[in-house]
Each structure stands twice: as C-alpha cells, then as structure tokens.
Sequence to fold (444 residues):
Amino acid sequence: MTINTPNTPLAVLILAAGQGSRMKSSRPKVLHTIAGLPMISHVINTVKTLNPVHIIPILAPHMDEVIQAITPLKYVTQPKPLGTGDAVKCTLNKLKDFKGSVLVLCGDVPLITEATLSKLLATHEEHKYGITVLGMKPLDPSGYGRLIQQADGTLDRIVEHADATEKERSVSVCNSGVMVIDGNHIHKWIAQIENNNSQNEFYLVDLPLIAQKDQYTCGVVMGNVQELQGVNDRAQLAELENLWQAQKRNEIMKSGVTLQNPDTIYFSYDTKIGQDSLIGANTVFGTGVEIADHVEIKPFCHLEQVKIYSGGIIGPFARLRPGTILEKNAKIGNFVEIKNATLGENVKVNHLTYVGDADIGCGSNIGAGTITCNYDGKNKYRTTIGQDVFVGSNTVLIAPITLENGCYIGAGSTLSKDIPSDSLAVARSRTIIKENWAISKKET
Ligand code: UD1
Ligand code: MG
Fold:
C-alpha cells in the first residue's frame, strides 16, 4: 500500500495530563517504559517521522520527570484535568497562527505506527474532512466511546460509553482517542465544547457534531486494535511490552539474525544486531547495545550499553555492563562481568572474572577468577593491561595499576605495583613441602 505524504503542515498534540491512578505508581503513567523507553517517548519518536511543525505534549502541573524525559520539546500545562477538550484548549495559544492539520494523540498509546498516522492524515486531507477519527474494533468495546457513522461511512458523532444508549453501545466501532482536526477552525470549534455530560468533563469527542454544524463532513479511518491499545494498568503495560517484543523479534530475525527460542529474548527500543549473529535463549538486552555481524551470544546473558565488534563470542551467563567495548573476536566466557572497559582484538576472558574500569590490549588472556579491584570504598581507579599479557588464574589487580605489553602474571598473585613489559610477576607465598609430614603426625 502506498500512502501519500500529506502536504498540509502538521501540529501534533500529545495528551498526557491524566493521573494514571490505576498504575498505582509514584511516577506519571507516560514515564512507564516499553522496551526501556518511556511510553511518551515512543509516541514522540513516531510522530517525528511525520515532520510536524509543532509537537506539543500536554502535562499536568509538577510533572518534572516527564519534562526531563521530553526535553528539548516545549510542553503546555493543563492546570486541572477538566477533560480531553480542555486539554486541547490549553495548546491553542501556541497554535494562534497555525493553519494546517492538528493531530491529537495520547501519551499512553505507545505502539501507534507512522503508517497508520499517515493513512489517517492522507484521508483527512483528501476528503477535506473537518475532523477525522481513528476507529478500532476491540474485542470488548465497553468503556470506549462509540463512533456512530452515517450510511455512507462518514462520522456523525462520538458517544462516550457512560452517555450511550443500549443501541449505541451495540456499535462495535470505537474511538481510539486519536483524531485530526482542521486547524483553520480548531479555535472556534473547541470554544463550543460544553461539559454537560455524565462526567462533567469537556469532551474532545464533541467536536464532530460541532464541525458538522459548521457544514464540515467528518470521517473515520479504521486502525489495528493492537496498535491502538492504551495502557491503564500494569497488566496492559505488560501486554504491550509483549506485543512490542514479538514485533522486534520478527524484525530482527528478518534482518538475518538467528534467535534461539525467540520468546525468551528481550530487546530494548534501540538494540542493534548485525547479520549472521546468533543470540542464545534467555538473553536480555538493556538499552544502548550495538552488536556487529557474526557475533555469538550464548544463552543467559545480560547486556546494557555495550558495543561488540564482529566475531565476538559471549557467554553463557555473562554480564556486560555500561561502557563495555569488545573489539574484534573477543571471547567472554561464563560468569564474567565487565564494566566500563575496552577489550582489544582477540582478548580472552573465559571464566569467573570481574573486569571493571579497565583497558586490555589485543591478544591478552585473563585467567579464571581474575578480579580488578577498581574501588577503594571512595574512588574508582583504572587497570591498564597491554598487549599479549598473560594473567594467571585467581589474580587480584589492585588499581590503579598497569601491566605492560607481554608480561606474565603467576596464578594466585595479588598485585599492587605496575609490571614492566615482558617480565614475570609472581606475588604469592612460596609452596612449602614437608615430606612424610602426615605419616609422622599420625604416629604422635
Ligand atoms: C477517551 C475518549 C474515548 C476513547 C478512549 C480511548 C474522550 C472524552 N473519550 O476516553 O472516546 O474511546 O479515550 O482510550 O476523549 N487527558 C488529559 N487531560 C484531561 C483528561 C484526559 O490530558 O483533562 C488525557 C489522558 O492523560 C489520556 C487521554 O487524555 O492520555 C484520554 O483520557 P482518558 O481519561 O483516558 O479518557 P478515556 O475515558 O479513556
Ligand atoms: Mg483512557
């Protein structure tokens, strides 16, 4: 399906002043995340692809965390939650000279797609509708506003569930909460909304009747119900997270990545994985992970803000924390934790190790049980390991420390001094052997 890009200038309003009390949370609802990104940011990212002139979120007073999340976007505050019509009214000052289409979205409907919005805007423009509403057919329509259509499919009115008659409630086409309004008339139409309904709220959904009085026809565009699902509680949040993950898994597999038991793998909104990489079951990608091609992640790994170059082999059971960079063909084995560290090409850290605040040069091998002691209880220090260094098992590196190129560290060493290149350092007590000691002990 080709969608014509609408030519009319676009302003986008994002309703987000609701309290979201059913989330039972101290955080505003729209800050709860899907795939590691606040719901409102999903909506903002999607609408940015439509190149709008304005994006105006509408917030309640004191939503400081939301303001931080949406910066540098300018927002408006709705002083009191008097209804969706009142929320839109609060933006009108910013739209004084705007002549175009005004798209109204909800900050708690995060999975809406660019394709659906383009279709809505194109239909609105093509038919020169006054208002065009995005409709949907949920399995259970109760609670939603119903779209009452004329015989020709145009929109007559929207009736809220609470205000609807039995006959109106039998209509299965519901209001998704998304609509486009002709910006040339929005000021005049919004001023006519009244609050004489069961909730005593100023309903945005009254606009179609108002526009028709002004001789404008209103339209309906149908959308996919999954995409238009809103979040009111934690169960719905989890549902949308699952939907998002399912889509992302498909997308990633289509791009040439093998997923082992895909349903157990969790991605973030910004996860990038190159072709022919293989991801093991039960792996979780936090935000900011970038993986090149031909990388293998074995099962049960957790990665966050990590960059892995081609040929890396990770896990099983590895934890790669923020600031980890693994250059080509690095190998990280089981029960290894890495943080804020750059590992050069062909570095191997195969077992039971913590590497934090470190740089390791190409070809170095870090033995099982090695620990970088990067923290003295107050400050953090770096460990620098050169190229082709061999660190024996169970080594403790007390940072700040440098192991120069090509040096060898004997197993079980605790090092607190820099080690020169190509030298051997052993820092453990010597082995003492007392022959026949056990026999003499038994005899006494
Ligand atoms: C609204 C629609 C309903 C539709 C449903 C879809 C109205 C009157 N009703 O109902 O037809 O089927 O969405 O989910 O529009 N908000 C503000 N300020 C307010 C009130 C609400 O910003 O004063 C925001 C909320 O944060 C939310 C959105 O507007 O993002 C919708 O408000 P909500 O109270 O959830 O409306 P519904 O009753 O769900
Ligand atoms: Mg709602």
The longest helix spans residues 234-254.
